[in-house]
């Protein structure tokens, strides 16, 4: 029996998405304690931005190599290793007593996290048919949004009760244990069931695959799309979103986390809504274009609202940005429909590099801008920093226009 005909594929789906949920919950978790870290470790905004940037730099820099390795040697091993590294990095983070260990532990987390999404996509490509993929990406988007959601109010409430170290230690330990679960589900049990591998085309050389990726307009289109919509969203939520709520609206940590939850609720709805709309349209590009434009205009309105905007306006615009972020799942639907099975890993990695390159740059550039202003003008500094996500989202619009409709 082939993998795509086996009922066991649903167990694979549930377990891999559970692990993805846990890892996503740790991806942006440090953003909740940005102010606490600056006080406890007596570091500047630039150092905090550097910590986030190191994590996402590791992620972005490893996407193409991991994609190549996944296509060559199979995604199961790398998903397991990535899960283990993410858990160990989170545990190390919980014991950090200086800024070096903070940065190094997040580098470990970023290295492990780099192995997750690309291999998740490759595994789902093996177990599910192409026609099921758009709907499946809606579920992946939902799980990602729920993971990010837990890193807002639920995490901040836990931190207020127990301090910030305990949650990172416990969640890190659970992630390490989940790596063992992955081994039994993806390797041990699959071998026992003797499920056939799906037929694969003859592989080209690494040089040929990389050359094709870098010279294909469609691959660059997905790179820019993900840069503009996903990385901008993750970079803001994971670093300066909570401080924005605290300093612009004088909110408590919990209330600022709730403000970020608005965007995440939008993303939860957006993942399913956009998947549903796309399945009923004959054009992925039209859906892509509409929601990218919606996100760009939302960032523009936030910027134009000034240093003390009405909070109800910001709530609405954050919701729209989260809603539009659901379209990021279509990036990999485009990849799956455009490229062969043997190229999905590396092209997915290339597209994902775009998303996390912007997630690397955004916290760092935010920190640089903020350090130009006195500490008592933080709300003004945060306002001026909003030009960064606005510019990045415009890059995403350019990517949408580059997509060749006839190829998908």
UniProtKB/TrEMBL annotation:
Q: Which domain of life is it from?
A: Bacteria
Please state every residue range assigned to the domain named Major facilitator superfamily (MFS) profile. 12-408
UniProt membrane topology term? Multi-pass membrane protein
The record, for InterPro entries, names: MFS, MFS_dom, MFS_Na/Anion_cotransporter, MFS_trans_sf
Residue ranges spanning the membrane: these are 7-25, 45-69, 76-96, 102-124, 136-156, 168-186, 219-239, 259-278, 287-305, 311-334, 346-366, 386-403
GO cellular component terms given for this protein: plasma membrane
Entry keywords, A to Z:
Membrane, Transmembrane, Transmembrane helix, Transport
Single Gene Ontology MF annotation: transmembrane transporter activity
SUPFAM superfamilies attached here?
A: MFS general substrate transporter
| Compartments it resides in | Cell membrane
What Gene3D superfamilies does the record point to? MFS general substrate transporter like domains
Please give the name of this protein: Sugar phosphate permease
The uppermost taxa in this organism's lineage are:
Bacteria, Bacillati, Bacillota, Bacilli, Bacillales
């Amino acid at each position: 029996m082939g993998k795509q005909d086996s009922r066991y594929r649903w167990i694979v789906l549930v377990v891999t998405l559970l692990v993805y949920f846990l890892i996503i919950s740790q991806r942006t978790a440090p953003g909740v304690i940005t102010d606490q870290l600056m006080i406890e470790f007596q570091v500047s905004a630039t150092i905090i931005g550097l910590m986030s940037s190191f994590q996402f730099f590791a992620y972005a820099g490893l996407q193409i190599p991991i994609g190549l390795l996944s296509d060559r040697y199979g995604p199961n091993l790398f998903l397991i290793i990535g899960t283990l590294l993410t858990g160990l990095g989170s545990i190390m983070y919980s014991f950090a007593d200086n800024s070096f260990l903070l940065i190094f532990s997040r580098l470990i987390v970023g290295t492990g996290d780099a192995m997750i999404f690309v291999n998740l996509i490759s595994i789902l490509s093996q177990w599910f048919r192409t026609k099921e993929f758009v709907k499946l990406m809606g579920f992946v988007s939902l799980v990602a949004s729920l993971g990010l959601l837990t890193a807002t109010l639920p995490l901040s409430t836990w931190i207020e009760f127990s301090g910030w170290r305990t949650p990172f230690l416990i969640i890190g330990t659970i992630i390490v244990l989940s790596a063992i679960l992955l081994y039994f589900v993806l390797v041990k049990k699959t071998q026992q069931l003797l499920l056939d591998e799906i037929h694969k085309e003859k592989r080209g050389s690494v040089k040929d695959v990389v050359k094709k990726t870098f010279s294909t307009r469609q691959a660059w289109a997905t790179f820019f799309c993900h840069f503009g919509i996903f990385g901008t969203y993750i970079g803001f939520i994971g670093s300066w979103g909570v401080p924005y709520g605290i300093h612009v609206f004088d909110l408590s940590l919990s209330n600022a986390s709730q403000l970020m939850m608005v965007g995440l609720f939008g993303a939860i709805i957006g993942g399913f809504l956009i998947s549903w709309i796309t399945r009923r349209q004959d054009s992925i590009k039209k859906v892509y274009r509409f929601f990218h434009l919606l996100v760009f205009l939302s960032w523009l309105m936030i910027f134009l609202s000034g240093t003390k905007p009405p909070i109800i306006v910001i709530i609405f615009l954050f919701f729209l940005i989260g809603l539009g972020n659901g379209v990021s799942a279509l990036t990999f639907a485009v990849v799956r429909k455009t490229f062969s099975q043997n190229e999905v890993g590396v092209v997915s990695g290339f597209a994902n590099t775009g998303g996390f390159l912007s997630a690397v740059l955004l916290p760092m550039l935010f920190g640089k801008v903020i350090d130009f202003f006195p500490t008592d003008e933080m709300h003004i500094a945060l306002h001026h920093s909003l030009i960064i996500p606005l510019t990045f989202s415009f890059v995403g619009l350019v990517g949408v226009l580059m997509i060749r409709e006839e190829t998908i």
